[in-house]
Write a structure and sequence with these properties.
With 283 residues, the chain is an alpha/beta fold. Helix content is 45%, strand content 19%. The chain contains 12 helices and 9 strands. Helix 1 crosses helix 12 and helix 4 packs across helix 12. The longest helix has 19 residues.
Length: 283
Amino acid sequence: MNLFKHKPDPFFDLVVHDILRAPGLTGASAGYEAGEWRYDEMANYLFDWLPEFALKYSELEDLNSGTAMYLIRRAAKTVFTTSKYQKRGEFGELLLHALIRDVFASEPAISKIYYKSATNDTVKGFDAVHVVDNGGKLELWLGEVKFYKDIDAAIRDVTAEITAHMSQYYLRNEFILITSKLDPRWQYAETLKSLISSRTSLDKVFARICIPILLTYESTCVASYTEANAQYTAALTKELQEIYEKFAECQLPPVRVHLFLMPLKSKDNLVSILQCKLEGLQR
């Protein structure tokens, strides 16, 4: 049984979605309701993804009417319990998880959140480890997130990080960690183990890697409108294109990259709502 066959109903409007350009680009919009940006609705959508984001595959197999509430509470507590939530990045990682799953029908290979040694640990390494079955050929999607207010800072920091993470030494160490965390009950476990084995040349691995990058930012366009009308869509498309051009001008490693851009009205407001809902699930 494929546990990832079913997904929550889509939430975001994809204002821009182009997989043919390099890097690829997806610009998502949360939209408005009754004149307000959809903070609550976006938070609810993200938490629909929480169990598969925070639990390992075999636990998801055991999810049923008798275990659902226990496992959902456990998933919520696994994310984090610290009061310093404004400086944490897990909500950005949850957002990237949702976008890759929704837009590209990926499957999470591991939940790095699950393997934290303490609830308030910051997990190092890639922010998402997913696979995409592309016509029978398995692709490894290694995600990076900058859950920021300022887009220039997000671009600066993520380009430096992905360059470092594409080094031979870093990748080999990450592959060891990923292999040790794969759930043997997951359908792609053995295929992925073979792909990232130390016996497999990194040249072959690089041909099957995609780096999905999620950058959030507080958007002038989003703050200037109260409904997702044609004028808003045109203005946001222009804003996303300008950001994309800045990103594409950066020196990127020779690997396939797909850029997700998520404009926000207020990051602080969104995070506060997410934290409130997370605390409710933890009880």
